[in-house]
Amino acid sequence: MKSEGCFILGIESSCDDTSSAVLRDGILLSNVTASQAVHEAYGGVVPELASRAHQQNIVPVVDAALKQAGIEREQLSAIAFTRGPGLMGSLLVGVSFAKGLAASLGIPMIDVNHLHGHVLAHFIKEEQGAGGKVQENAMQESGKPLAPCSLPPVPQFPFLCLLVSGGNSQIILVKSYKEMEIIGQTIDDAAGEAIDKCSKVMGLGYPGGPIIDKLARQGNPDAFTFSKPNIPGYDYSFSGLKTSFLYKLRDWMKDDADFIEHHKEDLAASLEKTIVDILMKKLRLAAKDLKIKQVAVAGGVSANTGLRNAFHDYAKRYGWKVFIPRFSYTTDNAAMIAIAGYFKYLDKDFCPMSAPAYSRVAT
Questions:
Q1: CA distance 345 to 80
Q2: Residue 21's closest CA among 8, 7, 10, 33?
Q3: Please, which of 263, 268, 281, 323 could form a disulfide with 296 given CB 3.0 to 4.6 Å?
Q4: Which residue, 203, 191, 129, 134, is CA-closest to 162?
Q5: What's the pTM?
Q6: How far is CA 175 from the centre of its chain?
Q7: Domains along the chain with CATH numbers
């Protein structure tokens, strides 16, 4: 017999993070993620290794999420899972597990678009105790949920969301929880991909985002200039920047073989500034054309300090009301899948057991 309330289990396995979360009536009770350090040695995610790690992690991660939420699996109302886009091998682990668990419990399944999950991460509400952390046991002895603290503001529809990650750079017009329109996107490399590749060229390691961010805080963002694309409309391009960065390093290193080591902080700061300028210029254009003041950012690159600072700066300069996710919700996580699933659950928007995973969004 199910307890009072709607319990949604979220499962995320689109790339190299195995994550599971539990919501009760839209309030987050737990969010557990197992990351895969094995890919660092290869300078990028190895799909076969990722899928194998998901197989090892999925059961203990889901079990931990249920225990931290203080519920049994029989209390679940539905299972929300990432159906795509992502790495097919990784997705199949999460999709297959969700199907098996849903069938055994006789509860509906809810498929979630991974990118929509990132956008809707802004609507995650936490059940909090001392220290503002999601509690390991979110239920009181009475079985009733703890009262949530004052909740952060959420974007009002319609709003613009800049979704930036290792695989995506998009400007999304968000009209409702289920109606989103991509009005601009990269035509080649994504912003996060460009950062990782430039970091690799500098010999700094993988993933490059956190490394570049840390170095950039100590450097001069105006020390060097790199190519900026001239792409019409709201679309992005980062391949030219990456090539410009590579060629300039090559030329500078002809005169100083240790140029990177001598200037790595300034290189990181200048690279970050160039990418942030490219991202914000198009976002500003879209906001101006559409006359929208509610602007959000999401995805792994939204953890970047320079980009976050730029959002605050644009809020002051252009009167935007900006929404920046907590660091824990910038990377791939199941809380964002669970909240997206919760909204679909309210609409009774379920998916059949036959629904396959998909690696790319159909165009």
A1: 9
A2: 10
A3: 323
A4: 191
A5: 0.89
A6: 20
A7: 7-153+331-346 (3.30.420.40), 159-291 (3.30.420.40)
Contact 259, 252 (CB under 8 A): yes
Q: How far apart are CA 187 and CA 185, in angstroms?
A: 6
Average pLDDT of the chain, as a whole number = 90
Amino acid, res. 307: L
For 215, the token pair is 């170095």
Cβ-contact 168, 297 below 8 angstroms: no
CA distance linking residue 174 with residue 297, whole number of Å: 12
Instruction: Calculate the alpha carbon distances from 264 to 100, 115, 163, 212 in Å.
Output: 49, 33, 27, 9
Q: How confident is the model at residue 133 (pLDDT cuts 50, 70, 90)?
A: very low
Strands 27-35, 17-24: parallel, antiparallel or unpaired by DSSP?
antiparallel
State phi, psi for 57 to the nearest 5 degrees: -95, -25
Task: Identify the helix (H) or strand (E) that includes residue 322.
Answer: strand 321-323
CA pair distance 269, 290, nearest whole angstrom:
31
Cα–Cα distance measured from residue 191 to residue 237, given in angstroms and rounded to the nearest whole number: 8
Burial code of 48-59, b = ≥16 C-beta within 10 A, e = fewer?
ebbbbbbbebbe
CA 307 – CA 312 distance, rounded (Å): 9
H or E, element range at 58: helix 47-69
Q: Which residue has the tokens 């644009």?
A: 314
Quick check: 90 and 48 in contact, CB under 8 A? no
pLDDT given for residue 39 in this prediction:
54
Tokens of 133: 């952390």
Interatomic CA distance for residues 251 and 71, integer angstroms: 60
Cα–Cα dist 266/239, whole Å = 21
Q: Which two tokens stand for residue 140?
A: 């009181």
The mean pLDDT value for 142-171 works out to 76
What per-residue confidence (pLDDT) applies to 43?
67
The answer to whether 239 and 191 are in contact (CB under 8 A) is: no
Q: What is the residue type of 274?
A: T
Beta bridge partners of 20: 11, 32
